[in-house]
Amino acid sequence: MSIRHGLLALLERGPRYGSQLRTEFESRTGSTWPLNVGQVYTTLARLERDGLVAPDGEDAAGHTLYAITDTGRTELREWYERPVDRANPPRDELSIKLAMAVGAPGVDIRAVIQSQRHATIRAMQDYTRLKATALAAVESGQSRERDDVAWLLVLEQLIFQTEAEARWLDHCEARLVRLSLPADRRAAAPEPPQAAAETTAPTTTDRPRTARTRRA
Amino acid sequence: MSDQRQSRQPVLQLERLVRTHGSGATEVHALRGIDLSVHPGELVAVMGPSGSGKSTLLTLAGGLDTPSSGRVLVEGTDITAASRKQLAALRRRSIGYVFQDYNLIPALTAAENVALPRELDGTSARKARASALAALEEMGLGALADRFPDEMSGGQQQRVAIARALVGDRRLVLADEPTGALDSETGESVLALLRSRCDAGAAGILVTHEPRFAAWADRVVFLRDGSVVDETLRSHADSLLSGQAGGQ
């Protein structure tokens, strides 16, 4: 997993000890994925077992230092060059929840969608606030550049991810509305946007005749 | 902009706003009783599928259309009860619009476009130009003052349109898909400007179908079939990623 490679990437800049790696990992990714020291030492032990890092003496305060090996450097290069593996998509609770909600007795799937949309947009509002602050810090140049830029990229990834989720929810709603129409009216209703690129869900397709006369 | 925090009275209040088109069998309920207040310093995004009433809400808020029932108060004045003359004056002095296609006048420079609403309102040309230049300067657009719309990019034109919407004492900006014609990066910069004008005391309504742009707002209102179905409030961002805000 990426903690391995994250630690290798930090060690490429020179020998470090465990809690130092933890601090640097978190400041680079804005604590989005907090690590505990235990995880760091477990990962270091595995990296050592695999020959990717090696102990490198102690610093003045007695911390055990680790250094990246040549094998470790090669592994790191390959990691940067290799696309992230999509063969096993991570389990996504929301997808599972909606899949279960289809046709579930006593569940209003549109309400499930709306309550998630609410939470998703709200998270986007928060990320966007944080992003505006981070961007201002980077652009004013008064920042520890590398960490701030990295944090900005992580935040923007979170924004894109939540955006994709919000668009997908719109799409699900439109899809469900369309599928719930009788077949003859379904033919007249516009197809929900596949890529959700230009427009959100035309939920009013349940009234194709009036929809045309409305603005919005 | 100096009087920004002076009053907590909403800049815009919509009260039980209803708009129905047609009657009988062809009757369409565009809005079914909307209540919404926008305060100084606040940016509210309105989202919803096509036909949910987003644009109707904006045209009513700006006095471009008349509700079937309900009230629209702009800085305390009921614009549904105003005479045509009062309404026109209110639109010149209090309400600014930003449209998807900018709507700058092609024969006028940026500064002249921004000055126009003030000139129409009877301000001397010299004073109007001075306030236009100040507005452009304040938004970091000073260098564009003497350019014509066709000499500016879409993003620059839209930023000038925001300056025009908020020149003088106007504090209410109504934006209808302002990023619709812009690429994502430019759209972002337009939203950042709108956000900063609201942080400086303006009140804004942003109609958009882009969640990423709506996320710049303090509140997101979801419309469906002419009714508000849901509304988000911005929580304190720190609670989301603990320990973050201090790290900047």
Jot down its keywords:
A: 216 residues; mainly alpha; 9 helices; elongated; B: 248 residues; alpha/beta; six-stranded mixed beta sheet; four-stranded antiparallel beta sheet; 7 helices; globular; disordered C terminus
Describe the 3D structure.
Chain A contains nine helices and two strands, in the order H-H-H-E-E-H-H-H-H-H-H. Chain A is mainly α and about 220 residues long. The model of chain A is unreliable at about 195-215 (pLDDT under 50). Chain A has a two-stranded antiparallel ribbon with strand order 1-2. Chain A has helices at about 1-10, 20-30, 35-50, 70-80, 95-100, 110-140, 145-180, 185-190, 210; strands spanning about 55-60, 65-70. Chain A is elongated and about 75 Å long. Chain A is about 60% helix and about 5% strand. By secondary structure, chain B is α/β, with parallel strands linked by helices. Chain B contains seven helices and ten strands. In chain B, strands 6-7-8-3-9-10 form a six-stranded mixed β-sheet. In chain B, strands 2-1-4-5 form a four-stranded antiparallel β-sheet, covered by helices on one side. In chain B, strand 1 and strand 2 form a beta hairpin. In chain B, helix 3 (about 110-120) packs across helix 4 and helix 5 packs parallel to helix 6. Chain B starts with 11 loop residues before the first strand and ends in a 15-residue tail after the last strand. At the A-B interface, helix 6 and helix 7 of A face helix 1, helix 7, strand 9 and strand 10 of B.
